[in-house]
Amino acid sequence: MEKGTFLKNSQIVILGLCIASATIIASVILSQGALKIMKFTKENITVTGSAQKEIRSDFIVWQCAFSSRDADLSTAYKKVAEDLKKVNEYLDSKQTGLQDRSVKQVMTEMIYKKNKDGKDTNEIEGYNLTQVIEIRSKEVDKIAAVSRESTELINQNIEFISASPQYFYIDLDQLKVEMLGKATANAKKRAESMVNSTGNRIGLMRSAKMGVFQITPVTSTDISDYGENDTSSLEKKVMAVVSVSFAIE
User: Fold this and answer.
1) Closest Cα to residue 229, out of 165, 172, 144?
2) Lowest CB count within 10 Å: 38, 81, 160, 205, which one?
3) What pLDDT digit, counting tens, does each position of 56-103 carry?
4) What's the CA dihedral at 206, 210, 211, 213 to 10 degrees?
5) Domain limits, the chain
6) CATH, range 59-168
7) Residue 187 binned pLDDT confidence (cut-offs 50, 70, 90)
8) Could you tell me whether strands 159-162 and 214-217 are parallel, antiparallel, or unpaired per DSSP bridges?
9) In Å, how far are 125, 151, 165 from 140, measured between CA atoms?
10) Which residues pair with 183 in a beta bridge?
11) CA distance readout (Å), 123 to 29, 74, 110, 127, 211
């Protein structure tokens, strides 16, 4: 009986040792797996990519205005109506399309007499009437030239003012998509250049954050945290920026 009991106890001890060994081995394996997961989770690189392109505006918005001042409202209005006819005739002579032309309503400003202290009184001295014409066109070069030459109308006894044109790019949304793709490719190239020197390689992209767009004159170096959107220049420079994180393998 003693011998049987001894064998039974020995088997129990051996079984216990085997279970303990298996538990230790399993713990090591699981620990290594956890370390690998942590390594995969933590090892990444975040870089900034950018892309830049020069574009030429393909849409223009130009406004011009003329005004008339008189003590009599109807007389001032009559002069504005006459000037409108002359301005339209001038624009027709420059072959600007009627479909691109918008005549705004007449704006009326009352002018009050001043007292001895230079302050306005309640007595109306006269009226100042102003009319604005806006042209929106794809014929950028033609309208830009007209905006420069239109002050010739001053010679026709018209109080004429030509505003600076505004220049736009019609397919800006499509351009943004293109530029974001190029900026992301640039970010990956930069990441590869940095990681390859360590003997590793770039894995999957984990995250990407789009920065603001900068649309500036070609020669400008201005940037803004909120983005620039220049409309004053015909030739523009567009820059897109992205921040991208990649896994390191």
Assistant:
1) 172
2) 38
3) 999 999 999 999 999 999 999 999 999 999 999 999 999 998 899 999
4) 150
5) 1-42, 44-58+169-249, 59-168
6) 3.30.70.2970
7) very high
8) unpaired
9) 42, 18, 10
10) none
11) 96, 18, 10, 12, 56
